[in-house]
Design a protein that fits this description.
It comes from Candidatus Jidaibacter acanthamoebae. It holds the Pfam family Ribosomal_S5. Belongs to the universal ribosomal protein uS5 family. InterPro entries: Ribosomal_Su5_D2-typ_SF, Ribosomal_uS5, Ribosomal_uS5_bac-type, Ribosomal_uS5_C, Ribosomal_uS5_N, Ribsml_uS5_D2-typ_fold_subgr. It is a single chain. With 179 residues, this protein is α+β, with helices and mostly antiparallel strands. It has two domains: 62 residues, Double Stranded RNA Binding Domain; 92 residues, Ribosomal Protein S5, domain 2 (2-Layer Sandwich). Strands 1-2-3-4 form a four-stranded antiparallel beta sheet. A four-stranded mixed beta sheet has the order 5-6-8-7. The longest helix is centred in the last third of the chain and has 16 residues. It starts with 12 loop residues before the first strand and ends with a helix.
Amino acid sequence: MLVRAETSNQELSDKLVYVGRCAKVVKGGRRFSFAAIVVTGDGKGKVGLGLGKATEVMDAKEKAVKVARKNMVKIPLRDGRTLHHDITATFCSGNIVMRSAPAGTGIIAGGPVRALLEVLGIKDVVAKSVGTTNPHNMIKAALKALTEIKSPRFIAEKRSKKIGEIVSRRDRQQKDTQE
């Protein structure tokens, strides 16, 4: 359920996640170039990922911001602060497990995944990265997981049920696991 988000350039925050340097050896010496990964979000459920490459760091960052704002997607959030359900995703050798958390937990995640969740607007989540520490793969795995989240409204429409039936069932399951 990948939905492109309509974006206006107001209220968007950008976070530089990673800058990598690459060297090309030529006859006269080394030529350096830079790659930048940027995540952009509005803090209300829209997020985008961008990769930019250039000979200067600032140019690479600007390109990445432009790509991130172009590729923003809408993620359904529960109460505007956490995920609707637990989710697992894999991208290349990067695996990620994300779990919704009660209010006041905060963002328990490391590295590039934390930046993605912050600009998205999630306030309470537990995320565990397994496998690679490559920021490209970790962010893409996290974004893949987030785009696979289904809201109760979507599930209710698909099953031809009411939203109350779906949500009450979820609440009963959470009480059973806590006891």
